């Protein structure tokens, strides 16, 4: 059994849903050494999240942003946690809905994603800054 772990920081991105699959693969070239295994991708933040979804049509990512902005509105007067700005508490809620990690099988040295699947960074803040990602992979 082999284990690999790499931590890296994504460049700051605007609010929205961004494909980061290639950056994850580049960060852990040791994936190529695994015939069969698991890759766990974790974000070390509470106002951004990760998910798997459509990797071809960019309108899907725009629709994700539209849906989450309609579903979790900013400037709700009932929010108590608002000292970091109107986008802060909604960002925490969105991150909890989507989650902080994705787990993907590794097959013959590559992520066993479906044809139309990619890893999204879901940036829920207007100015979230760089985001730290921990990738852990293991297998044979």
Automatic annotation (TrEMBL):
SUPFAM superfamilies: YjbQ-like (SSF111038)
Pfam families membership: YjbQ
InterPro entries cross-referenced by the UniProt entry: UPF0047_YjbQ-like (IPR001602), YjbQ-like_sf (IPR035917)
Family as reported in the entry's similarity comment: Belongs to the UPF0047 family.
NCBIfam families noted in UniProt: TIGR00149_YjbQ
PANTHER family hit by this protein: UNCHARACTERIZED PROTEIN YJBQ-RELATED, UPF0047 PROTEIN C4A8.02C
Protein name in the entry: YjbQ family protein
